Amino acid sequence: MIYEDIVKKAKQASKKINKKAIEEHLAVEFDIEGEGEGAFYVELDKGMVDVQPYEYYDCDCHIRGGADVIMKLIEGKLDAMVAYLQGDFRIEGDFDKAIAFAKAVKNVVAPKTKAKK
User: What domains, with CATH codes, occur in the chain?
Assistant: First the structure.
C-alpha cells in the first residue's frame, strides 16, 4: 500500500468516527513505518474531524506503526489496548489522548439497517 492510499483510506474511515465521543480538542499524528512510510494527522474538535497528509507539530500524541495496524486502528477494527501491549504500535506523547482517540474509533456509529418485513 502506498502512502497516498493510506491517507485516502484514513479520510474515508474518519467519516465513521463517533464525534460525540470526544469532548475536547484532540490531534493525533500517525507515523507510518515501513511500506507506505509517511505521516498524517487526524484532528477532532467540536464535532469536526479533519485528516491531512502532513505532520502536526503541536499534536497531543504520535502513534507509530505499520500501515496495516494503523489502518485497523483508525477503522475501529483493532483492540487498541491489546495491540499496544503486544507492541504492534507505539504511543509518544499524551497516552490518555491516544486512548480517547482509540475509544472514539472503536465506538463508530453503526450504519442504519432496513427493517425486515
Answer: 3-106 (3.30.1050.10)
